């Protein structure tokens, strides 16, 4: 019937074709003007040209620059509002610590100054830091610290599942709320799809303030899906903080011996909590559009237990400068002896990729540990496409075989370590809300080095000569996946 209609009125079909062509030309112009990343621009142009209709839908769902949207303008304004409330303490903390410990951070002074200037992130002193291995190590510590809360508990999670560990934590939070502790809980509506209405209802009825960061009504049509809150943060009484790769889910405590999940988390106590609190309040106000009374009780930096770690925070999101990406590149270029990187997804932006290659070529011992098999065939293939050029430039690559390694850590030389939520991929370094803790401490560095060397026993090292002999059809698929990597 449609064919007969156009056969009878062919000029209508010609008119539609002309309108479509004009639309594609205007959309191509919009993509070129709005998309700053060259590889992304080319990927979206190829999509709209070679995959009609579907390519346009994909662009509007994933590609529109919502940083310019009023939605994020509101958040930027609220960020500044929170910052003004704590700016004096942030400045005093940073300059006091920098003056006292300038020699200790001197090799990474460019990175330290960049994070302070780009995101108001102060270098803090006197922190206790503790590495937590897998969910088994994290959650027992979390339950113990939360049990001791007296004023408030703030949680912000990408994934919170309605399972045994999720309900155990929920029970404890409800118990503390009944004791009068203020509890606020932010979750990513995309990542926490399994949290369930019943658990959310139980939390709210239990006296817990709950909100998604970006509310998603229709998942398939959700344009905010592109900017996920990938952070994992717990703040207790303004003095104790947890962050790292471990979400709230049973799989992180390894109930199934055949699906081993390898991860790392970080516990901190001291002044480092201050900036995490700033980040949480910024996102809370953004999510709820309500400004709570921010008293000094939320910033209890005078913790009883003192440590010897200097800590600074790198945070990124659609409302900020790409601080994680740029601080990672800066730290890598500061290395003199070694760089050990662990990441589940290695699809780096060009800035970080070039920094890693430059460090390796200059003689730094650069090692990359990644899963042998990822949880997505396309993502895995895109990562594989980078390995030949890394191996060619003297980077050593280790495939973790025991299970899925989900840790996000980086060790540089003898004193610098990074533990956080950001993967080394385009999404984490340009789109998501992420947070990394940078620790300047020899003992933490040595502990992560020992952990890396221990995990190497469960790895297979790949070498340049054998890697480049892979079948050509695999190499072709990998490079096709890499072409789409800015959209993954």
Structure description:
The protein has 488 residues and is of the alpha/beta class. It contains 18 helices and 19 strands. It has helices at residues 2-8, 10-34, 38-50, 54-63, 70-100, 102-105, 109-119, 134-147, 164-178, 197-205, 273-288, 323-333, 350-361, 377-392, 426-431, 442-456, 464-467, 472-483; strands spanning 124-133, 152-157, 182-187, 209-212, 232-236, 240-244, 261-262, 264-269, 309-316, 338-342, 346-347, 365-371, 396-400, 404-405, 409-412, 416-420, 424-425, 434-440, 459-462. A 15-stranded mixed sheet has the order 4-3-2-5-6-8-1-9-18-16-15-10-12-13-19, with helices on both faces. A two-stranded parallel sheet has the order 7-14. Helix 10 links the parallel strand 3 and strand 4. The protein is globular.
Estimated share of beta-strand residues: 15-25%
The chain-level structural class is alpha/beta
Fraction of residues in helix: 40-55%
The outline comes out as globular
Largest sheet: 15 strands, mixed
Neighbour order of strands in the largest sheet:
4-3-2-5-6-8-1-9-18-16-15-10-12-13-19
Counting DSSP H or I runs of 4 or more residues, the number of helices is: 18
Ranges with pLDDT <50 over ≥5 residues? none
């Amino acid at each position: 019937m449609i064919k007969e209609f156009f056969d009878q009125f062919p000029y209508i079909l010609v008119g539609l074709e002309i309108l479509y062509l004009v639309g594609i030309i205007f959309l191509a112009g919009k993509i070129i003007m709005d998309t700053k990343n060259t590889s992304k621009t080319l990927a979206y142009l190829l999509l709209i040209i070679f995959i009609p209709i579907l390519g346009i839908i994909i662009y509007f769902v994933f590609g529109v620059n919502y940083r310019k949207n009023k939605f994020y303008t509101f958040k930027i304004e609220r960020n500044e509002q929170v910052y003004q409330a704590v700016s004096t303490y942030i400045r005093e903390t940073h300059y006091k610590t920098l003056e006292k410990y300038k020699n200790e951070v001197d090799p990474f002074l460019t990175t330290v100054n960049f994070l302070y200037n780009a995101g108001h992130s102060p270098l803090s002193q006197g922190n206790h830091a503790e590495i937590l291995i897998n969910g088994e190590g994290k959650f027992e510590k979390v339950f113990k610290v939360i049990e001791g809360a007296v004023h408030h508990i703030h949680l912000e999670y990408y994934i919170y599942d309605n399972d045994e560990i999720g309900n155990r934590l929920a029970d404890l939070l409800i118990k503390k709320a009944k004791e009068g502790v203020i509890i606020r809980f932010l979750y990513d509506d995309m990542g926490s799809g399994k949290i369930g209405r019943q658990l959310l209802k139980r939390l709210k009825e239990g006296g817990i303030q709950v909100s998604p960061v970006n509310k998603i009504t229709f998942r398939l049509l959700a344009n905010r899906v592109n900017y996920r809150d990938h952070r994992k943060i717990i703040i207790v009484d303004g003095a104790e903080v947890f962050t790292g790769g471990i979400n709230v889910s049973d799989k992180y405590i390894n109930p199934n011996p055949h699906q081993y999940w390898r991860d790392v988390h970080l516990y901190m106590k001291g002044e480092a909590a201050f900036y995490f609190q700033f980040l949480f309040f910024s996102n809370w106000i953004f999510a709820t559009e309500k400004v709570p009374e921010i008293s000094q009780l939320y910033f209890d930096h005078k913790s009883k237990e003192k440590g010897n770690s200097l800590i600074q925070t790198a945070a990124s999101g659609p409302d900020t400068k790409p601080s994680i990406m740029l601080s990672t590149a800066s730290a890598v270029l500061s290395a003199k002896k070694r760089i050990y990187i662990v990441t589940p997804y290695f699809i780096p932006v060009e800035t970080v990729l070039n920094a890693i290659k430059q460090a390796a070529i200059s003689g730094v011992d650069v090692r990359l540990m990644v899963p042998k098999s990822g949880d997505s065939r396309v993502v895995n293939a895109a990562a594989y496409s980078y390995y030949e050029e890394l191996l060619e430039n003297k980077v050593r690559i280790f495939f973790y075989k025991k299970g899925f390694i989900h840790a996000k850590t980086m060790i540089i030389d003898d004193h610098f370590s990074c533990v956080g939520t950001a993967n080394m991929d385009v999404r984490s370094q340009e789109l998501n809300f992420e947070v990394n803790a940078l620790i300047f401490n020899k003992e933490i560095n040595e502990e992560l080095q020992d952990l890396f060397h221990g995990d190497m026993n469960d790895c297979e090292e790949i070498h340049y000569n054998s890697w480049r002999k892979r079948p050509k059809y695999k190499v072709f698929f990998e490079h096709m996946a890499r072409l789409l990597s800015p959209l993954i």
